[in-house]
Structure formats: structure tokens, C-alpha cells
Amino acid sequence: MQYELIVQEVPQRISLLYCYLASVMSESNMSRDIGKTIQTINEYRQTGNDYFRTGALSKAHFQYHCAHLYILEMEKTSKNQFVNMIQGNTEVDPTPEEKEQLNVASLSIFNNMSAVYVKQGKHKKAVEFATKALEIEPDNVKALFRRGKSFIAINEIDKAEQDLEKANSLTGGSDNTIKRAIVELKNKRTKIDKKQKEFFAKCLSG
Fold it and tell me: Comparing C-alpha atoms, which of 26, 11, 69 is closest to residue 44?
């Protein structure tokens, strides 16, 4: 893979720096070879999926993050008209087919990054990347479910209800995992309401 360095034996933060530099160094070639950039993104995605299946969450996250950096640089390049002018590029936008390929890869990456963050208990980050996935595909059940679960964890009960009820509707109420999450949501709401009532009762009696 062009500009990629061997990173297995260096700390992860340095590895991410190498990955970022690789994506930036590739920026000037992205408009000329968007297909190759998408292939690079998919290679990181697939490697991340392999790690995720084995439970190696940190390694999976690293691969997804590298893919995300390439996506960000690709978006930045397509918007940077000054760079395009200097490079003499007249067209940097992906073709419709390439856009579809990029959306498919990005959707998977964002969904899986959200899944990693859920497992790591980093629920605000899980919400962030599930939201990115939903910007691509608003009715994506996995993203709605993960964001809903994460909203429960950070006590955003109304938002959790919206996501989980939508996910439940999209699956026709047939997904037991989603239904269990809705039960968890209702229990969480009951617990929060009880605490609020106790708090206000103390305030009034004090």
C-alpha cells in the first residue's frame, strides 16, 4: 500500500500519525486515482473487520480510524478548489459509481467504529459515529440501535426512544435484541423519574 509504513511494533498513537501522513501524502493523487483510494479504504476496513471478529478492539479501531482519515482527506481534496487549480485538475469529484462505493465503505466503517466504542463504553463517541452512518443511510437499523443504546447509557432517554422505536418499526418488531433494549429504556426512564420525584420531594420538604 503506497506510503504505508510498518506500524505493528510502534505505539498506536505514532501508528495513527503514520497513517495520517500516508493519507495526506496520497491527497495529491486522489483526484487522479479515486478508485485506488477507495480500494485502500476498503483494505483498512476489511482488516478492521477481521480484528473485530476476534475481539481485538484496539487493533480494529486503528484500522477503521486509518480508513476514516483517508475518507476525510478525500472529502477535503474534493472541496479544495485552490489545490485543484494548482494541480491543474478539472474534475476531482468521484463518479456516481465511486460515490456509491465510498458510501458503502464509509457506512460500514462508521457503523463498526460505533460498535467498537459501544463495547469500550465510550458512548458519546459511539453516538458520533452512529450519527455519521445515519447521515449516509437514515434508516440503517444497526446505527439506530447502537446510537439508541448509547443514548440510554448517557441518559438521553427521549433520543434513545426515538432511535429504538424507529429501529423496532423498521424490523417489524421482530428483532429481540432491539425489543430488549426498549425494555431497558423503559426501566431506565422509570428509575430516572423516581430519582427526580425523590429529589423534588426533598426540596419541597426542606
Answer: 69
**3-class secondary-structure state, position 128:** helix
Per-residue pLDDT tens for 48-76?
999 999 999 999 999 999 999 988 887 77
- Give the CA dihedral 185, 191, 192, 197, nearest 10 degrees: 150
Indicate the average pLDDT of the chain. 82
Cβ atoms of 186 and 172 within 8 Å: the answer is no
- Alpha-carbon 199 to chain mean position: 37
Separation of alpha carbons 163 and 182, rounded Å: 10
pLDDT surpasses 80 at 3: no
pLDDT value of position 30: 47
Q: Give the Cα separation of 113 and 62 in Å (integer).
A: 10
List of long-range contacts for 95-101, beta carbons under 8 Å, 24+ apart: 95/34, 98/34, 98/35, 98/38, 101/38
Q: Give the Cα-Cα-Cα angle 159, 163, 166 (nearest 5 degrees).
A: 140
Q: How many residues does the chain have?
A: 206
The pTM of this model reads: 0.78
